[in-house]
Design brief:
heterotrimer, A mainly alpha (281), B mainly beta (104), C alpha+beta (155), A: 281 residues, mainly alpha, Cytochrome Bc1 Complex, Chain D, domain 2, 3-stranded mixed β-sheet, 11 helices, B: 104 residues, mainly beta, 4-stranded antiparallel β-sheet, 3-stranded antiparallel β-sheet, 7 strands, 0% helix, elongated
Chain lengths: 281, 104, 155
């Protein structure tokens, strides 16, 4: 069933040069990513792969110049500072997040999401933060709460700035979760009957009304964002928005579907450097 | 209420490049509160003064048309590394804030 | 105790603290803020804003360079930079012509401060962003159009 859905969408893209044979449902993550890169770079040979981390901005110098001007001294610095205070404040028992997290929380975000064999599911950075909280007698944050988890990760993820995305998909169960995320990405959904791929693969670089659409490769490295310089949005919050924009019911943030999607989606940005808390329109 | 202003001042040749990021909602008085539907009253920084080693270098009036968390960049010829930059602001409610930084 | 000083220390309501502090000799006049030009900032059109600034008939000048986007990513935060290469530039004003109150900021330079201002402004709609420069007793102006769209997919 899932192979049929993927094949249907891929057939639609066959005319655009995407080799059907290579893009089978069971290609490895690295192969899937290379197929996408081949597709995008044949359409846009003048855009460097390193610049895909800027998404739509890589296609429009006027937008990129505004991003550069604002990122020189971002208006949301004080919001990130709030996250720093959250990160550095010890729990009631005196321990800190740095005590729980691998590497003290530095240069780790590129490893997440990862597949936890013991738990039998994908684990995101948010999950690890919440595990740290509950292990130290604190309540878990709601992952879709921008004031708590959002603000904390707006700072905490900056500790991984520059880290190369390095998602591993190595065991059969991990592959199954990855394939589930890939299925979500390529399946048509909602009243508008679009897949994520309808915009972010088939129409990357094109305009949807006034907006330039970003390619899937390079998307997952630059979250959370501050929209308009002040509205914090995390990656799964953005997925939620995308579901709503195609008039589909979004699955719960932090649940299996969203986490598997983030697992697949992040793997598509493997090899690219991360940068958290950036400006977007 | 006002969070600290941030000042970055560096020498580029014989010119001090000063960048200031202020924290302020800069309400125009035209925005409706999402929850109450009421207009949020105007509240914005009106006057900004910058001095270097005590001498005024920039004296500005801002309107509510300056973006939230105002950013200001200006350049001054003549100062040296180590000179002290002080920035003050006053807003429409009479609240004030001040910060200083040494030119690096 | 000096009554004025007592007022300042109490933060007397209604006594504009800066003005009182100047009067009490606690703040030298040269350190006082330029009083906020309400007439100019409350003006609802470009003509009245210019009047409020005491400017009339500024000459168009190619020596004023406005760096601003062609299309604003977000009208709430539009980066604008004005560079005046006119000798003796003493002030730069920035006007967003179609804003409800067009005057956005006025900046006075003294000492070695160059004719340069970088800031971020709000724009309600597509309009000219105009710079008005005072230099050597004369006034000059330049403008650049910045388009503002209402768009945004981003959830």
């Amino acid at each position: 069933m899932k192979q049929q859905m993927i094949m249907k969408l891929l057939t639609g893209m066959a005319g655009l040069g995407l080799a059907l044979g290579a893009a089978t449902a069971y290609a490895s993550p690295e192969q899937d990513k290379q197929e996408l890169i081949k597709y995008y770079t044949s359409k846009y040979p003048n855009i460097k792969i390193e610049d895909y981390v800027y998404g739509a901005l890589a296609f429009d110098p006027d937008s990129k110049a505004q991003y550069d001007a604002i990122m020189e001294f971002p208006p949301f610095e004080s919001d990130v500072e709030k996250g720093r205070k959250m990160w550095e404040t010890p729990f009631k028992n005196g321990k800190t997040y740095a005590d729980c997290l691998p590497g003290g929380g530095k240069q780790i975000a590129g490893n997440y999401p990862l597949f936890d064999e013991a738990k039998g599911k994908v684990v995101t950075l948010q999950d690890v933060i919440n595990d740290c909280r509950t292990a130290n007698g604190e309540e878990a944050f709601k992952v879709n709460d921008m004031k708590t988890m959002g603000t904390l990760t707006a700072y905490m993820r900056t500790l991984s700035n520059g880290m190369i995305m390095n998602i591993k998909v190595e065991t059969p169960k991990a592959v199954a979760a990855y394939e589930d995320g890939k299925k979500t990405f390529y399946s048509r959904k909602g009243q508008l009957n679009f897949a994520c791929a309808s915009c972010h693969v088939q129409n990357a670089g094109n305009r949807l009304r006034s907006e330039v659409i970003s390619p899937a490769v390079g998307q997952a490295v630059h979250w959370p964002v501050f929209r308009g310089g002040d509205t914090l949005v995390t990656l799964q919050q953005r997925y939620d928005g995308c579901f709503k924009q195609v008039r589909a019911v979004p699955p719960p943030q932090g649940g299996t579907t969203m986490n598997n999607l983030e697992y697949f989606h992040s793997a598509m940005s493997n090899g690219l450097p991360m940068k958290a808390s950036v400006f977007r329109k | 209420m006002a969070e600290p202003m941030r000042i970055r001042a560096t020498m580029a040749g014989d010119v001090a490049d000063v960048k200031v990021l202020m924290n302020h909602p800069m309400e125009t008085g035209q925005r409706k509160d999402a929850k109450t539907g009421q207009l949020v009253p105007a509240h914005f920084i009106q006057e900004v003064t910058a001095t270097i080693n005590g001498a005024t270098v920039l004296s500005a009036n801002l309107g509510s048309g300056i973006s939230k968390n105002p950013y200001l960049g200006f350049k001054v010829k003549g100062p040296k590394v180590g000179d002290k930059v002080v920035v003050n602001w006053v807003d429409s409610k009479g609240d004030t804030n001040t910060a200083e930084a040494a030119i690096s | 105790m000096n009554a004025l000083r007592r007022n300042v220390l109490k933060g007397a309501a209604g006594a504009g603290t800066v003005a009182v502090a100047v009067a009490a000799g606690l703040l030298k006049p040269t350190q006082a803020m330029a009083a906020w030009n309400a007439a100019a900032f409350d003006a609802k059109n470009v003509g009245d804003a210019m009047k409020g600034l005491g400017v009339s008939g500024p000459a168009d000048s190619k020596d004023i360079i406005i760096k601003a986007p062609d299309i604003a990513e977000n009208g709430a935060v539009v980066p604008v930079e004005v560079t005046s290469n006119i000798a003796g530039t003493s002030s730069i004003a920035i006007i967003a012509e179609k804003n409800g109150t067009p005057l956005v900021g006025s900046f006075s330079m003294s000492g070695g401060t160059q004719g340069f201002i970088s800031t971020r402004i709000k724009m309600g709609q597509t309009s000219l962003v105009r710079a008005v420069v005072q230099a050597g007793g004369k006034t000059y102006t330049a403008a650049k159009e910045v388009k503002v769209t209402i768009g945004g997919c981003g959830g």
